[in-house]
Amino acid sequence: MKIIQKISFIVALALIMTASSCKKLLQENPKSNEYAPFLATQTGAFSAITGVYSDLRYFYSSEGNVIGFYSGTDEQQFGGSATTTVFATYNGLNSGNTVSWSSMYQDINTLNAAIQYSTQSTTMDASSKKLYIAQAKFLRAFIYYYLVTTYGATSSAGGVTEATNSGIPLHTTFITQATTADQPASLSAVYAQIIQDLTDASADLPNTVTSTDPFSGTGIGKTGTVAVAQAYLAKVYLTRGYTAAAVAGDFQKAADITSNLITNQSVYGLGLWPDYAQAMDQANDYGKENMFAFDMGADPTYSNYNVGSSGGRGLNQLPVFFRWNYISNAGVNSDASVPQKVTGPSPEFRDMYNGRPYIRSRPNTAYTIQYAFADQVHDSRFDATFQTFWICNQTTPPGLQTDGKTLKGALIPTTPTSTTTYIPPLNGDTGILFPQLLNSQIPLARRNSFKGMMTSIDQYSNVVFPTVKKFDDKTGRLTMNDFSTRPVVELRFSEVYMMNAEANYMLGNVNAAAASLNVIRERAAYRTPADGTYIPASAFKVTAANQGSANAVNAAAMDLTPAQRALLSIPNNTAVGSGQCGMDLILDEYTREYYGDLRRWYDLTRTGQLLRRVKMYNPEAGANIQAFHVLRPIPIQEIQTVVSGPAYPQNPGY
């Protein structure tokens, strides 16, 4: 394709080599042969690979791409300020408004060059060659896995079979001359290449990210290691097992690899934190549970982003996507039967603690809040994931009770608060509260006795909803409008257990699947007194005195019940309207463990459950979704660049 040309590689490489302006980066005059000697050096290979990490950093944080990871699923619906609802509703999704792949193939070409010239190098020592080639092959596999799972690797739903294709081209050699002809490869060929790359990378990557690894420096992230490559290898086998390209033994290989990683986790410096809240804690972003992550703004050398400014490629927007506009009272108590309101300004203004609202995406109340996170006593993950109350941070006059006449008490703000420093509220009245009542109205007497505003679940809307707090940046921002410098985590060690459970379920190994799920579920029961500091007063908390006994009771309650284990004996059923099966149990657990992470659309398409579960749980998307939506459309700009030979085929249905 025309996009796969020598200049694509030069642009990606130049990103790390220069601080030039965008205009300079896009000049189409470099000659690829001028870079061959440089790429054959250790510095050249390092520049090429870190250039790809820089591109991925941008791709996995920009709003236009991020929406493709979770919109239009059972978990989420569009927020009131969503820039587009196409991905959330499937109403008008086409090849002109889909996610692009151009930058991905530029990066593939860069990696092909790094592999080729590192292999030929006469100046790099043998160990360096192995390390750099392994890192490049890991990244190439990672990118191809994203591409094939976006445009071609699904279950048989959607009309994709091995007799058609993967939807994407396969290129493994450095392209130095632009071409206007290309065709998609077969599913089998793409998967074979990904598996080979990950197998090769696993042999030569380091066991852990250490100070001697050139790709472990601050600003690059948690990069490829043996365990990361092995985990993705398991995920590739798991994914291929559902497709028309499946090979006998795919699910068994996924189960074996994940089992080995769990058994030998200490060798790779991995493990689960005892408390789920610890896994989300910013202090542990580079700890034992986060396996693969892209740095965002930690070092401008790699991110091209300076905190306190806009733009750059290390701009992590995840903390703001899921945040409602708590500053505005509009709609908070809009139910005509509850005329409760404040009479003056909002009890909230934007500060560092509460953050910047973008209102792009909201939880699907019926599924996410009322079903997946229904148990908020034994399971700590709702409290660790969502913010459901806001402490008043400015003087607010008395509001009205539900009779619309009687005044309530004035709200006392917290002291201190700040627009430049992250200060958790230590005092002050609660200005806004979303009580954890899942299926009942808030009694009027309780509303009247509460000086702020209470919002019941039936009052949630596309502008009022619980905020995802687990991505909040407590230390890296300089102003309240900054985004985040926290890394975007692509792989957590807990997913190794989840993949093991999923693979064993598909193999019919109920006991093994249940054992892995119980590890994750029992960990979710654990709480510390500190975990209760910033959750509503009415929520379940533990004290120093009862922590041990309460956690033991909750862990036992979180173990799968006989009825739940029985579900694991029911095979994966993807038919729309079918009853519950074991995959529902597993996908519900994925929601609780990873809500907000960049993944949900892929979990549903991998397992063949997208159509069924969207129609089951999401009325906004369920009205429009079709079987062919299990694939994203090939971008029109990519199709139009093929002007020689056969026309590039569009995915079925578009």
Structural write-up:
The protein is mainly alpha-helical and 654 residues long. Among the domains are: 283 residues, Serine Threonine Protein Phosphatase 5, Tetratricopeptide repeat (Alpha Horseshoe); 154 residues, no CATH class. Helices cover 39% and strands 5% of the residues. The chain is built from 26 helices and ten strands. The chain has a three-stranded antiparallel beta sheet. A three-stranded mixed beta sheet has the order 6-7-8, with no helix packed on it. Strands 1-4 form a two-stranded antiparallel sheet. Helix 18 packs antiparallel against helix 19. The longest helix is centred in the N-terminal third of the chain and has 26 residues. It is globular and about 80 Å long.
**Main sheet strand line-up:** 2-3-10
Q: Major beta sheet, specifics?
A: 3 strands, antiparallel
Low-confidence stretches: 1-34
Treating each run of at least 4 consecutive H or I residues as one helix, how many helices? 26
